[in-house]
Amino acid sequence: MFIYEKKLQYPVKIKNCNPRLASVIISQYGGPDGELGASLRYLSQRYAMPYPELKGLLTDIGTEELGHLEMIGAIVHQLTRNLSEEQIKTAGFDTYFVDRTTGVYPTAASGFPWSAASMAVKGDVICDLSEDMAAEQKARVTYDNILRLSDDPDVNDVIRFLREREIVHFQRFGEAVRLAKDKMDQKNVYFTNPAFDK
Amino acid sequence: METEMKPTPCGDACGTLPECAPLAVPYVPFQQTCSKKFSQNEALNHGTLFPGLDLPFRSKAAPANVVQNALNELQALEFVIVELGLYLDTHQSDAEAFALFQQYVEMERQAKEAYTAMYGPIVQTDAAQSKTYTWLKDPWPWNFQEGGDK
Asked: B120 to each of B70, B83, B108, B132, B149, how far by Cα in Å?
């Protein structure tokens, strides 16, 4: 089960509101490579995993991603505090505001609401771990792109932290492939799917 | 399981590779054991415990300087535990890393006890130690008021 801890993994303290930036960063809340999809991907994939290292790793990274979802929510919230009548008309944010006011809603920056179609659970060890490695890279690039678009140092500190986590997770998933492979048919890892075939 | 990793002369940024890497399987070198590690505060600033994995984007900026209060000190300890936990998930026989994990868990336990006694609950049941139900007290983690931070 899960128990809530009343603190963030990494501090989010954004002094200046910036609705334009919020309308971009929301993509890591509910976009195709965002933290919601990341946590649900890993926490859902773990059921089919046959080896304890993989069950543990998917549980632990999936849990950390829920913490990252909360950090992104905090960034969006703080960037849209106390907006003036003029600020809500900011190009790019006005279209969000009309539907959500300043609530935090899982959507891509493009306006497409969060979709389970942006993640995958295939029930095959090598396939799911390969998906996870790609997912970490996609999230890393999204954070690169946010850093290109943002000049707020309070935001960038947090984004750099989250981006670095994607790199560490990629490394761990890569190691997980090797741990899995060592337990599979050494001559042909595609001989069976140990998540299904007994 | 054949995951014993021989000590290698590689630098920290280099992982260990087997003699023949497999075809048609994604391949990432294993991080070697006894990798260099940051202190807990540096680890939180860099987003990783391991300098070998610290690969920033276009970073002209100096790393963050996050640790400024009691909460940040606790966050730094807990971050090292998360990072070591993931490392141990794929390196369960690394005794040195496990000993460090045990040390950090003990340090975190003490720091959390001191923190909750001073500033209030982190998990809901911590509120049982107060005279009243302090769980609801502002600020919640996503709130930030300048100057109002503990």
From this structure: 12, 26, 16, 11, 13
CATH 3.40.50.740 fits A19-183, yes or no: no
Instruction: Quote ipTM for the complex.
Output: 0.96
Neighbours of A125 (CB within 10 A): 25
Which residues in chain A are closer than 8 Å to B20, comparing Cβ atoms?
none
What are the residue ranges of helices labelled H in B2-144? 40-46, 70-90, 95-119
Q: Which of residues 32-91 of B touch A (CB under 8 A)?
A: 44, 46-48, 50, 53-59, 61, 64, 66, 71-72, 74-75, 78-79, 82-83, 85-87, 89-91
Q: How far apart are CA A32 and CA B98, in angstroms?
A: 36
pLDDT digits (tens, 9 = 90+) for B46-87: 999 999 999 999 876 678 899 889 999 999 999 999 999 999
Q: Are A55 and A99 in contact (CB under 8 A)?
A: no
Residue B43: closest CA among A10, A37, A159, A23: A10
pLDDT at residue A36 greater than cutoff 90: yes
Predicted TM-score (pTM) of this structure: 0.95
Bridge partners of A113, per DSSP, are A107
C-alpha torsion B99→B43→A119→A75, nearest 10: 140
Q: In one letter, which amino acid is A94?
A: D
Q: How far apart are CA A135 and CA A46, in angstroms?
A: 15
- Looking at residue A93, its pLDDT comes to 96
